[in-house]
């Protein structure tokens, strides 16, 4: 039972970490993030299993984390309102070619990040962009003026910021 | 030659089959979680007692335990009137001892013998009527599953005075 409680607490703590860290942190991994993830992995294992190296405990922890993850996705599907809390909301970073500096500051997206994401999308000039949206998973969706006018979804999404 | 990258659209029955397969998978994941919630994998411990020939033997043992976790094991031998100068002799199944990874008994036995199937421990007589012995042990690593009866016997000379039979499940 303690194993179950520890797993639930650690899962909720990790979910909170991802929500607090912001959208950028979810998708982008630089060298420091890699170190953070390695450290977190070790701490999480220690926190859940402690000195219990048994096979059954590992199976219980894996099973419970899987069920909790599926449970969260079911929650977001059944209650659209919960989606905002669980996964976060998309943020408009740029509209009509003009970057929204307040939104960019809030999401810790620099102009260099935005330009890089636009380049990866094959966009040469910000003037071409009708709308740039930082999605909840950290990816950026671009609506260029041509696709925007037709009210079409973006053909593909830029790699995560 | 053109190579299509788009998958074919799922039919209703295919989607239902895929969903059912996922549900079966989730149910499989849920089995160990539910079992753990009901304490199937332990750790659980309990106490057994037996008496005979003036001796009373109480054993505190793990009912269910897992690899590497603490496995509490202790016993108390009581004899009304005390043990005099006679040592306290107990016999424990070797199969149980082999499954544990332990530092030592407290108090430390004064003598130990092993006949292959059972281990005999001899303790100096305590002051008073009872001897309490505990084992600082963990379940050994790399264990397979087993569910067996084990025996701890207190001896009166060469004869068995009292035996507690206990059942322990070892989970890998």
TrEMBL record, chain A:
Swiss-Prot/TrEMBL keywords: Cell membrane, Membrane, Transmembrane, Transmembrane helix
Subcellular location: Cell membrane
Every YetF C-terminal domain range: 82-147
Domain YetF-like N-terminal transmembrane: 2-70
GO cellular component: plasma membrane
Main subcellular location of this protein, as a coarse class: membrane
Matching InterPro entries: DUF421, UPF0702_alpha/beta_dom_sf, YetF_N
Topology in the lipid bilayer: Multi-pass membrane protein
Name of the protein in question: DUF421 domain-containing protein
Transmembrane segments: 32-49, 56-77
Record-stated family: Belongs to the UPF0702 family.
TrEMBL record, chain B:
Record field: transmembrane: 24-42
Entry keyword set: Membrane, Transmembrane, Transmembrane helix
Name listed for the protein in its UniProt record: Uncharacterized protein
């Amino acid at each position: 039972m303690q194993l179950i409680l520890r797993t639930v607490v650690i899962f909720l703590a990790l979910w909170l970490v991802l929500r607090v860290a912001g959208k950028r942190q979810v998708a982008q991994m630089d060298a420091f993030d890699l170190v953070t993830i390695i450290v977190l992995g070790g701490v999480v294992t220690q926190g859940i299993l402690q000195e219990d190296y048994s096979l059954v405990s590992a199976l219980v922890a894996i099973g419970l984390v899987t069920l909790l993850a599926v449970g969260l996705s079911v929650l977001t599907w059944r209650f659209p309102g919960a989606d905002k809390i669980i996964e976060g909301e998309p943020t408009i970073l740029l509209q009509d070619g003009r970057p929204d500096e307040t939104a960019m500051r809030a999401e810790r997206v620099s102009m260099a990040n935005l330009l890089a994401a636009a380049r990866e999308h094959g966009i040469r000039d910000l003037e071409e962009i009708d709308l740039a949206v930082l999605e909840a998973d950290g990816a950026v969706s671009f609506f260029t003026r041509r696709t925007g006018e037709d009210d079409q979804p973006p053909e593909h999404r830029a790699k995560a910021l | 030659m053109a190579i299509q990258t788009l998958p074919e659209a799922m039919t209703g029955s295919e989607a239902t089959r895929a969903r059912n397969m996922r549900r079966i998978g989730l149910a499989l994941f849920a089995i160990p979680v539910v079992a753990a919630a009901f304490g199937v994998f332990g750790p659980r411990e309990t106490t057994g007692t037996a008496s005979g020939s003036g001796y009373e033997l109480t054993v505190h043992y793990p009912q269910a335990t897992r690899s590497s976790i603490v496995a509490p094991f202790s016993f108390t031998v009581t004899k009304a009137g005390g043990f005099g100068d006679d040592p306290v002799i107990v016999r424990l199944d070797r199969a149980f001892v082999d499954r544990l990874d332990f530092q030592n008994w407290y108090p430390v036995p004064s003598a130990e013998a092993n006949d292959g199937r059972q281990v005999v421990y001899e303790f100096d007589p305590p002051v008073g009527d009872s001897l309490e012995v505990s084992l600082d042990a963990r379940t050994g690593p790399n264990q397979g599953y087993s569910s067996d009866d084990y025996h701890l016997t207190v001896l009166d000379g060469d004869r068995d005075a009292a035996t507690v039979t206990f059942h322990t499940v070892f989970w890998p």
